[in-house]
Design a protein that fits this description.
alpha+beta; 60s Ribosomal Protein L30, Chain: A; 6-stranded mixed beta sheet; 2 helices; 6 strands; globular
Length: about 130
């Protein structure tokens, strides 16, 4: 059974998709660009602040589903400039201290809304 996850504590989807979906004990969090919830303002030009906002958005979606960052098993980070990897990674490390999920990071040509970073997550919460 699928459960759609939606929260006002994260930005609304900017297309025909859900913020998150729970299925088969997993929570799939759609890619989160650094939009400030409720304001629609994009954090841009500072990869550390942008990474923090993207992670906060993803975290809010997980929390709406009754999960946390400790349940995350896989993260994908998309950057528009891979030379900013170290700065992104420094902020990322503040969110995943003892628990370190599998992760991939890629440089891409463009991200939605001209964002500097987009982060998606998969969490495992088991069958309910």
């Amino acid at each position: 059974m699928l459960k759609i996850i939606a929260t006002e504590k994260a930005p609304a989807a900017v297309g025909p998709y859900s913020q998150g979906v729970e299925a088969g004990g997993f929570i799939y969090v759609s890619g989160q660009v650094p939009l400030i919830p409720g304001k629609g303002e994009l954090v841009k030009g500072d990869i550390k602040l942008a990474t923090k906002q993207s992670l906060e958005n993803a975290k809010a979606i997980l929390e709406e589903a009754g999960a946390s960052l400790n349940d995350v098993v896989k993260v994908t980070v998309l950057l528009n400039d891979i030379t900013q990897f170290a700065d992104m990674n420094a902020v990322y490390a503040e969110y995943f201290t003892d628990h370190k999920p599998a992760r991939a990071a890629f440089e891409v040509a463009n991200l939605p809304l001209g964002a500097d970073v987009e982060i998606e997550m998969i969490a495992y919460v088991g069958q309910k």
